[in-house]
Amino acid sequence: MIAKFSVKKPMTVFVAVVLILILGVVSFTEMTPDLLPSINLPYAVVVTTYPGASPEEVETTVTKPVEQSMATLNNIKEVSSTSSENVSLVILEFNDDVDMDSITVDVREKLDQIEGYWDDTVSSPIIMKINPDMLPIVVASVDADDMGVADISKYVEETVQPALEGVDGVASVSASGLLEEQVNVVIRDDQVEKVNDRLKSSISDSLSEAEDALNEAEDKISEGKAQLESQTSQFQSGMVQADQALSEARMQILQGEIALENAEKELASKESEALSQAGYQSIDEMEAGLTSSLEQINSLLSQEASIRDGLTQLEAGISQIDNGLEQVKDGKAVLEEQPDLKAAREGFEAMKAQGIIDDDGNLLIPEDTPGYAETAAEAAALKAGVDLYRSKLAELTAAEADLTSQREALVSKKTEAEAAVAQIDKIKKEGTAAQITSALEGIQALRAGKKQLASTREQLTSAKDTLIAKAQEAGMTKYEAESQLAEAKRQLEDGEKELDEQRETFESSKESALDAADVTDKLTADMISQILTAQNFSMPAGYVTEDGIQYLVRVGNKLEDVEELKNLVLFDPDVEGMEPVRLSDVADVYKSDNSADIYAKINGNDGVVLSIEKQPTYATADVAEAVQKKFEELENSHDGLHFTMLSNQGDYIHLVVDSVLSNLLYGAILAILILLFFLKDLRPTIIIACSIPISVIFAIVLMYFSGVTLNMISLSGLAVGVGMLVDNSVVVIENIYRLRNKGASAIQAAVSGTVQVAGAITSSTLTTVSVFLPIVFIKGMTRQLFTDMALTITYSLAASLIVAVTLVPAMASGMLKKQKEKSHKWFDFMLKGYEKAVSWCLRHRVVTLLAAVGMLVFSVIASMSRGTAYMPAMDSTQISVSLSMPEGSGTEDTKEMADEVIERIMSVDGVETVGAMMGGGGMMSSMSGGSSSESVSIYAILEEGKTVSSQKIAGKIEEACADLDCEVTASGSSMDMSALGGSGVTMKIEGQDLDALQEAAKSAAEKLASIEGITEVDDGIIDPTPELRIVIDKEKAMLQGVTVAQAYMDLQKALKSSSEATELTENSGDYPVIVDDASMENMTTEDIRNYIFTVTGMDGTEKEIALKDIATVEDAQSLSSINRESQRRYVTVSGQVADGYNVGIVSREVEKEFEDFQLPDGCSLVFAGENETIMEAMGQLIKMLLIAVAFIYLIMVAQFQSLLSPFIVMFTIPLAFTGGFLGLFLTGKEVSVIAMIGFVMLAGIIVNNGIVLVDYINQLRKEGTDKRKAIVEAGVTRMRPILMTAVTTILGLMTMAIGVGTGAEMMQPVAIVTIGGLTYATLMTLFVVPVLYDIFNRREMRVIKEEELVVLDD
Q1: Which residues in the chain are classed under CATH 3.30.70.1440?
Q2: Is Coiled coil among this UniProt entry's keywords (predicted)?
Q3: Are the C-beta atoms of residues 1021 and 1002 closer than 8 Å to each other?
Q4: Which of 622, 1088, 1117, 1230 could serve as 1024's disulfide partner, Cβ 3.0–4.6 Å?
């Protein structure tokens, strides 16, 4: 269908091709080259510092909690750690598919949860993600003709570094070899002593004047005490005479008071007796009572006659009322017996009892009752009689009540009158009035006596008061005098006491002042650092607005030069005659530089080395190119400035990419030539040649839109696939060509030739592509590295399939109209020979199969005998050399040795430029933990036309430096991919007991060193650090007022000899100001043992405590670090594989030797070196291969609609593997991970030949051809397309297999395996597959006719 459309509408196909070309060109220009695909390493490092802590303390306090917390993270794979002195390093390995940005947030949350439990001295943890981008992409040297080291350093810092940091994609620029100047402030003890002497002299003069004033005050107090004693004696004599006069007056007053009291007692007795008899409480009450009684008696006697007359009248009134009551009683009796009223009452009661009327006389019967009117009249008459009776009875009752009330009132009055008469008679009889009058007269006499006594008492009281007043006056006078004398005495005593205190204070102050004049303990490095920091200060404080203008308020100003720093006032002693103490009075202030400590040379000349790191999201080549342009700009802007590239990943990337593109081009040209050789016709060759660039460009478009970059892996995929790109087109054009030679028209041949093989080429393409689909199940570095290759091969083959079924028939229908049959005498001769050979194989099937199996076994054994490898090392134009000096080497020793090494490297053939810097540069070198004074990083740039590989030159460098007293290691490639797989043989001994681990590690190292092929054995036990261990006795220390923390802080302060206080800006340069204490620079261990603490007690007094009194000081050895993995301690024992030995073979020998290795209890041994990495990657690829084989088989089942035919084709895979192993063996290559990629590809490629062959055999048999005849005829007919596709693929990979171009070594094993497998398997397929087909296909072919597939109506 597609072929018909393409032939019918060729211009549509043409338009699609043009669109693909345009998109391809745009995509290619937008894509940036890189060395490798973007590798997301699933690693993070948690760094925590714990100053002053030993490795064991770091492990317990920091590392273990961090490990336990991190172990609960999602997607965590492995947790390992290193606990060293002062620092904890926890390495986290996550699953490959983890998002490192989000996992970093989770890590920070976990750390925040445990950070609060740590001591304040433990720093906040730092999280770092490990990425290959941390390595510098460019290392370059800088030098200038007209600049010295100081000038070039300043120029680099002020101009070069800022310019480079502004380049897009540059993350950081590190410089090595810079001359760094600083201002030193060195405190000198002799200068401090001079200040002490001047201060003590001034203080002594001031104290002499104060002492004279104290002596004068003492004399005045003595005079005052003598005067006070004289005045006290006079006062005491006068006071005795005054006391005698007062005593006589008191005696006279006392006698008068006694006589008065006796008279008062007699009068009071008489008064009491009278009151008792009369029953009164007081005289006044008695007088008032008697007077009242007398008045009442006289009033009663004056009314006697009237009272008696009233009594008689009352008795007559009562008698009259009694008569009236009798009359009322009689009236009621008459009323009751009155006949008419009695009859009316009785009749009324009778009618009420009958229910005729109610109590009020109302009728209760209905009106229609017979005799109602008579009854009503009778009832009315009765009611009138009853009402009259009731009215009269009520009147009589009311009159009776009124009379009764009047009688009761008269009876009451009569009783009162009778009582009054009785009382009058009694008074007359007893003479009561006379008695009361006599009593009242006695009272008056009593009152007069009491008045006289009161007057006498007043006189006595007045005299007594006068005496008391005089006594008080005398007492006051005495008190005032005594008070004045006492006050005078107190003042004298206070003055004397104050004088004594002042004298004591003076003596104490004199001693203290002289002690305080010693500023040695005050003028410390810390104190001076704090003053410098505080004084060299300038900061904005805020804003103030006035008249609409906003003013910035800035406080302070920076120090401007060293002279101002020298004159800085430290303190004012406030002592007369003593000027303020300045910095220059106690310290030497001067500038210095690090010229003695730096080392950076280029070809033996001094210079500065720059290390440039890129940001992760930018392409290496782009950033390196931008940096190169910036170098050129800087060189043009400053005459005599030179930049020398020591390492440039960008150039290397371009070299590798250009090499791969060249191989791709060469492969395409060779493929086209071989097609021309087979077809002997330019027109079909042109058609197939067009399919190569179009397929490649189509693949580039797909790469761009799927995010695949132009890197060595993806381009190698295109280079590997270039030979296969023509396979589909070759099969199609060969079939069209064949049909055309049979006489079919160009259009018929184009359509039919494409349709006939469309299924086969689709199936073969799917089988090739399907081998890469299982990569989704692969994990680790293998997946990240080879996903790009899988995608590019898939894209290119898919594009070639589309081109084969669209463009090829469209072009063939127009270009093959005039076709002449070509003769192929040599090929026809070969076909006849093949026909005889395959017939012989069909007759001798067992021999053929045994030969194939024998070759497979031989090839595997032979190839594996060369060992295994992770990835091959690549040649480079740069060599990295590392120089390590013995421990304890000085800077000058390192410089001299580096000069010698540089000289020897320059003498090696092929080396053009050598650059070196001490300690290295960049982030990775700063994390190495090594001492910069004992190591030098050297970069060697090789000549472009070198004839020797970089690995061999690296070997020559190591040989040239072998006799030197240092370790020189050269890497033949700065892009050595084998580093991704580890290095050498490594084993981990795990356990918890450190002593047992060290013992096992030493034994394992000795055994490892005895194995052939192992060199540079390391037992993993870094030289222990000598330690002066101070063990504080907590009880003794606390009794002296010292804690362990205080002891630590005091010692740490004493051992701190220098610190950076501030920065001084002078002449546009910033100089750190370093404060040093000269007295602390030469402190020894003996000084520590005899150290004295100054402790302030609870009472504020200070005392000195010797360290040896509260602690023991021991010499000990401390472990440099403790390694842990999966929360278990381990020691790593490692060894490098010697030149000429293979890591796989040596590793197998090591594992064999260590099978019976005895370990201490609690310890275990695990291999974890390069071989383990290889085996893991191999296992992943074998898993990928098995899944791919299953996919291939299932695709062929769908193609052939048979389970047997695919099974026959699958036998081509071991044939291909035989050729691949033979290729590795014959070229001397190991079985590497890269080579395994070639085997995976082979599985998908080689079955294509079998598919084409078996498919045609089946077609012939369906047409009725005999089985063996069909087998032979199919082999003869399909030999040309089989050979053409195989040879084009082989030649397409030939340049890569030879290793043409820089970086070709990386993919060389893939090409070798593919070429060897295709070469051997293609030839064997033409013989072994027919034999297998003949063995397994014994039945006749099942043919389903089209008419049998017609659906019946009923």
Answers
A1: 984-1024+1119-1168
A2: yes
A3: yes
A4: 1117
Starting at the earlier edge strand, list the strands of the sheet with 181-187: 587-593, 181-187, 1069-1077, 1058-1066
Distances (CA, A) of 1206 to 755, 846, 1203: 21, 21, 6
On whether the 137-179+596-624+643-648+876-923+936-974 domain is CATH 3.90.550.10, my answer is: no
Residue 789, CB half-sphere, CA atoms under 13 Å: how many?
24
Closest CA to 581 of 595, 594, 571: 571
Among 315-324, 515-524, 686-695, 1077-1086, which stretch is predicted with the lowest mean pLDDT? 515-524
CB distance 143 to 605 below 8 Å: yes
- How far is it, in rounded angstroms, from Cα 1058 to Cα 1037? 29
Q: What distance in Å separates the CA atoms of residue 752 and residue 744, rounded to the nearest whole number?
A: 9
Rounded-to-integer distance, Cα 180 and Cα 98, Å: 43
The CATH fold of domain 41-130: Alpha-Beta Plaits (3.30.70)
Q: Does the model's pTM come out above 0.70?
A: no
Mapped onto helix, strand or coil, the DSSP state of residue 1026 is strand
- Each as own residue / partner, the long-range contacts of residues 252-261 (CB below 8 Å, 24 or more positions apart, any chain) are 252/463, 253/460, 253/463, 253/464, 253/467, 256/460, 256/463, 257/460, 257/464, 260/453, 260/456, 260/457, 260/460
Parts of the chain belonging to CATH 3.30.70.1430 = 41-130, 137-179+596-624+643-648+876-923+936-974
Widest Cα–Cα separation across the chain: 201
Residue 1346 identity (one-letter amino acid): E
Using one digit for the tens of pLDDT, what is the confidence trace for 188-237?
Answer: 777 777 777 777 676 666 666 666 666 676 677 777 667 767 767 666 66
pLDDT at res. 979: 44
1199-1241: pLDDT as tens digits: 777 788 788 888 888 888 888 888 888 888 877 777 887 787 7
Domain with CATH 1.20.1640.10 in the chain: 1-30+692-813, 825-874+1170-1338
Question: What single DSSP character describes residue 61?
Answer: I
Pick among 1.20.1640.10, 3.40.50.2300, 3.40.50.300, 3.40.47.10: CATH of 1-30+692-813: 1.20.1640.10
Per-residue confidence at 572, pLDDT binned at 50, 70, 90?
Answer: confident
**CATH classification code of 183-189+529-593:** 3.30.2090.10
Q: What angle do CA 241, 243, 244 make, to 5 degrees?
A: 70
N- to C-terminal Cα distance for the chain?
32
Which burial class, exposed, middle or buried, applies to 405 when counting CB atoms under 10 A from its CB (0-12, 13-18, 19+)? exposed
Give the least confident one: 116-125, 321-330, 674-683. 674-683
Superfamily name and number for 984-1024+1119-1168: Multidrug efflux transporter AcrB pore domain (3.30.70.1440)
The residues of the chain that CATH labels 3.30.2090.10 are 183-189+529-593
CA 656, chain centre distance (Å)? 41
Tens-digit pLDDT profile for residues 107-151: 988 888 888 888 777 888 988 887 766 778 888 888 887 777 777
Residues 754 and 760: their CA atoms lie apart, in Å, by 10
Strand stretches in 749-795, DSSP E: none
Architecture of domain 825-874+1170-1338: Up-down Bundle (1.20)
Give the whole-angstrom CA distance, residue 1265 versus residue 1258: 9
Alpha-helix residue ranges (DSSP H) falling in 891-966: 891-906, 922-926, 950-960
CA 1259 to chain centre: 69
**Both structure tokens of 1113:** 């000081």
Number of C-beta neighbours around residue 112 at 10 A: 12
